[in-house]
From TrEMBL:
Record-linked InterPro entries: GntR_C, TF_FadR/GntR_C, Tscrpt_reg_HTH_GntR, WH-like_DNA-bd_sf, WH_DNA-bd_sf
Keyword Transcription regulation annotated: yes
PROSITE patterns: HTH_GNTR
Name of the protein described by the UniProt record: FadR/GntR family transcriptional regulator
Lineage: Bacteria, Pseudomonadati, Pseudomonadota, Betaproteobacteria, Burkholderiales
Amino acid sequence: MPLAASPARRRPRGLAHDLVDDFSSRIQAQVLRPGDKLPTESELMRAFGVSRTVVREALSRLQAGGLVETRHGIGTFVLEARSTGMFRIDPSDMATSVDVLAVLELRVSLETESAGLAAVRRTDAQLQAMREALRDFAANVGEGGDTVSPDFRFHLEIAHATGNRYFGDIMSHLGTTIIPRTRISSAMRMAPELRAQYLQKVNREHEEIFDAIARQDAESARAAMRIHLTNSRERLRRAQALAQAGQAAGTDAAEGTSPPAA
């Protein structure tokens, strides 16, 4: 496929959004057909003149919209068009932390039960896939690498281990933009040492879930998942409050006033 960026792509609303529009148009026009493999991240960066962060955000939105799927270690592929009756969240609905908070409420119910079922029904191969996702997550904690993809893979593997394909379908439609860290990092602009501490805490919570599933303890798996997602929700709320406080302080400074004492 030709990879030249469209002349009208560079608009102030955001490079990732423009990249999503570009690929969505190609898919709808069947320039890209189901089963076609997208170029690599590096190829997209060169062709569109954008950063890896922009490319990953765009791919996450396309995945959240049910247009593509990423197969670990293989690549990203165009999906068959979904029927309108299927569960779907528009990528643009995930653009703010408010949306992520709302989806986290859904995930608490969905994934708590998912973990319990996975503990009872998982296979050794599925357990190994979860372990590999956690291994990839841990390997990237101290290196500033990609922890979002293995995080999502871990949760998706749990959904698959339920033996009920609809759990996996819903998680696939939600996509990697449900990972609160994609919003927290931008809101808090965490220093590397704070990011590592935060990710280590997330990893410990993941390990608690994994251990319960490994020993086929359904109630402990449900409890560990609920704690993890509730903690995620609270971390995002705190980050959101800090961001809002920063915006308010900036406004007060611009107007020559001081914020009220806490």
